[in-house]
Design a protein that fits this description.
By secondary structure, this protein is of the alpha+beta class. The protein contains ten helices and 13 strands. The two termini are 82 Å apart.
């Protein structure tokens, strides 16, 4: 509509100017015919000349003399005078709109310059009715032409939008529906082909999302299969360990003092393995068992973890226990042992891989709100990739061949206590983890 207005208004103003200029030109021709006969002309011929020019009278100024060349009775007083010699674009537009909006037939005076320099000026008197009629006809022609152009333009835009936008969007929708039927099928991932940049960006984003989702679904399927296999293995392993536990109990009655001292540790290790198998079977419910909270000294548990990790022969790793002897905490001792053992084992493996001696420290402290356990080592630190997915199963493994399950399980166990497992630092000087266990009693069972 704005384009139509910008085209129509100047056009109608130009048409009015051309119409008035034509009246002046015809009036000049009529006056020249009269001058050629030395002002001797029949009244009938004069009336015919004025009617042909569609004016009432003609005034021609030549040699500084203003002369009424042709004249006839004027039906009404002159309403306005328009001088085309000094009319600007704004004035022409304003006068054209005034004629269109005024339905009354008025008499106007029009002044212009004669053609071929046949005088100083020419002046005519005419009606606005015929001018308005011609302007309305011209406007209608412009309207019809504009309507035709609009229809053609709309059709072109429709087909262009259909080809460039609608069809690519339909293609994306078909691909999404097809992909939803079988997201594991990599052949159904969309291939970007859109020509419009925005649609191509959308297709590329959809392709990336579908690719990632397909990979994630495959990994979930493998994890589900792995979980089933682990559950079966844990079931059979539990039966085997139960039998082993019975033999370990008999070994405890041996008269050999060395065997008698090692037997309780062996029994405890086998008991933990049996318990781990049982909890692994419970993992099929997608959650760790609820922690059974008891109060126990943290230092004894830390020493037990250190003893278990120090049994390897030729180990160059030193364990440091910095836990106050009287520090009591409330937690599930078995689950907390698994957390500390996982952290200590990871640190032990990292230090051993360097071939250099090192140390692992387990420190305990507390404040009014939390019990805090810090596990640090002097190893080489975690690689950047491991830090990005540190507590994500099968993605946060720091050791070549590692699955990353240890830290994921540890974090889950700590969260089950209402606490948090954080990585404090990891650089060339070593790695430190911090376990926070709240002192406030939650909903876990307390014995």
């Amino acid at each position: 509509m704005l384009a139509e207005v910008l085209i129509f208004v100047p056009s109608i103003a130009r048409f009015r100017e051309d119409y008035l200029a034509l009246r002046l030109e015809k009036a000049q021709i009529a006056s020249l015919a009269l001058l050629a006969t030395d002002d001797m002309i029949m009244p009938e011929l004069e009336a015919e000349l004025l009617a042909n020019a569609q004016v009432f009278n003609v005034v021609l100024r030549r040699d500084e003399v203003r002369q009424l060349v042709l004249s006839s009775p004027i039906p009404a007083p002159i309403h306005a005078t328009h001088d085309l010699r000094m009319a600007g674009a704004f004035g022409l537009t304003r006068d054209a709109l005034a004629v269109l909006l005024d339905p009354e037939n008025r008499v106007i005076r029009v002044i212009g310059s004669p053609v071929q320099q046949a005088g100083l000026l020419i002046e005519v008197t005419m009606e606005t009715g015929p001018l308005r009629t011609e302007m309305l006809k011209y406007g209608l022609r412009i309207l019809l032409l504009s309507a035709l152009i609009s229809v053609v333009t709309a059709a072109l835009l429709f087909f262009a939008a259909r080809r460039l936008i609608v069809l690519p969007i339909r293609r994306v929708v078909r691909h999404m529906s097809s992909y939803a039927e079988a997201p594991e099928d990599a052949r159904r991932v969309i291939t970007p082909t859109a020509r419009v940049q925005e649609l191509r960006d959308a297709e590329e984003a959809l392709q990336m999302m579908q690719t990632q989702l397909t990979g994630a679904l495959r990994q979930k399927e493998r994890l589900a299969q792995l979980g089933g296999a682990v559950a079966k293995i844990s079931h059979d392993l539990r039966n085997i360990l139960t039998t082993t536990q019975l033999f370990a109990d008999r070994i405890g009655a041996s008269a050999d003092p060395v065997v008698a001292r090692a037997a309780p540790k062996l029994v405890n290790s086998i008991s933990r393995a049996v318990n781990l198998c049982e909890t692994t079977l419970a993992f099929g419910k997608a959650e760790e068992p609820r922690p059974r909270l008891t109060r126990f000294p943290l230092r004894r548990l830390a020493e037990e973890v250190a003893e278990g990790e120090s049994l390897a022969e030729g180990s160059a790793v030193t364990f440091l226990i910095d836990v106050p002897p009287g520090m009591m905490i409330r937690a599930d001792s078995e689950q907390l042992y698994r957390v500390l053992a996982n952290l200590a084992r990871n640190a032990h493996q990292a230090i051993t891989a360097t071939g250099q001696p090192g140390s692992i420290e387990i420190a305990g402290m507390e404040d009014e709100a939390d019990w805090c356990i810090r596990v640090g080592d002097t190893g080489p630190g975690l690689p950047p990739r491991a830090r990005e997915h540190l507590f994500t199963a099968f993605q946060g493994g720091a050791r070549k061949g590692g699955s990353g399950l240890g830290l994921a399980i540890s974090a889950e166990l700590v969260r089950g206590h209402g606490g948090r497992l954080d990585l404090l630092r990891s650089d060339a000087d070593g790695t430190e983890f911090l376990i926070r266990l709240p002192k406030s009693e939650g909903l876990a069972e307390v014995e």
